[in-house]
Design brief:
Layout lengths: L5 E5 L2 E6 L8 H4 L9 H10 L2 E6 L2 H4 L2 H16 L4 E6 L9 H4 L4 E2 L5 H23 L5 H13 L3 H14 L4 H12 L18 H9 L2 H33 L1
Parallel strand pairs: 3-4, 4-5
Antiparallel strand pairs: 1-2, 2-3
């Protein structure tokens, strides 16, 4: 087990996301074949599926830098809705009281302390163990995070049929998982990420996957989906209006 899940580097500051003892998000590896594409959908998915985020800082400035703060503050917001999520601040060469207030109130780790890594790993294991046991009780042998990773791979490869099938596998175990309903919607529309739903050629407002995604998602994902739906509806309305004008002129 290793903490290798890095979202951003800002000087000597690092932000880690650990999704699962055998699964992680490491930007230099996870995103290396995504050159020329938008990274945000992958970061968005990691923030939502991660159970533990470890934020490592060596100065207040680095912790407050735009990209790093953007990610740990989003994770804190998700923690308010999902009590299973935990953020662990780690610091080095700085006073813990100099950390941003939102982080200073959390249990933190001094990286200069002897046995720091062992203490951190032990702490993460304690957090993840009940979650893993919970999955085992729901459906022994099923790794939800691995299934979701397969869904993203299928979407990247535009294998929407397989993505849809794997969404159903996840929903058989977690029938109220808003993110998976949103991924299922992507497979139905034929796009590889949430931010491309607005490119849909037809309205998906009546889709059961859309309605369930809205019902079970957190506010951030819900807002993204509703905005995409509104854009598609408005484009469809304008298209129908232009067609009506064209037909009217053709009759003259």
């Amino acid at each position: 087990m290793a903490i290798t899940s890095v979202l951003k580097y800002e000087g000597d500051n690092k932000t880690f996301v650990w999704k699962h003892p055998t699964q992680d998000f490491f930007s230099k590896i996870t995103l290396e074949d995504k050159v020329g594409t938008e990274f945000e959908p992958y970061i968005f998915a990691a923030l939502h599926s991660a159970k533990v985020m470890v934020v490592v800082g060596t100065s207040r400035e680095n912790l407050d830098s735009v990209w790093v703060k953007n990610e740990w503050s989003r994770f804190l917001a998700l923690m308010k809705k999902d009590k299973n999520k935990v953020l662990l601040p780690c610091y080095k060469d700085m006073n813990p009281y100099d950390m941003p207030e939102a982080l200073s109130v959390l249990q933190s780790y001094n990286m200069a302390s002897i046995g720091f890594m062992q203490d951190l790993v032990r702490g993460i294991e304690k957090i993840l163990k009940p979650i893993q046991n919970g999955f085992a009780q729901i459906s022994p042998g099923i790794d939800i995070s691995a299934l979701k990773k397969r869904i993203h791979v299928f979407l990247d490869n535009r294998d929407f049929k397989s993505a849809n099938e794997y969404c159903d596998k996840v929903l058989d175990v977690l029938p109220e998982d808003g993110e998976t309903y949103a991924l299922k919607l992507c497979s139905e529309v034929g796009v590889d990420s949430f931010d491309k739903l607005q490119e849909s050629k037809y309205s998906f407002e009546s889709s059961s996957s859309y309605s369930n995604a809205i019902r079970f998602s957190d506010e951030q994902l819900k807002d993204m989906l509703e905005n995409a739906c509104a854009i598609v509806k408005e484009r469809d309305r304008r298209k129908k209006k232009r067609r009506a004008v064209f037909l009217s002129m053709a009759r003259i």
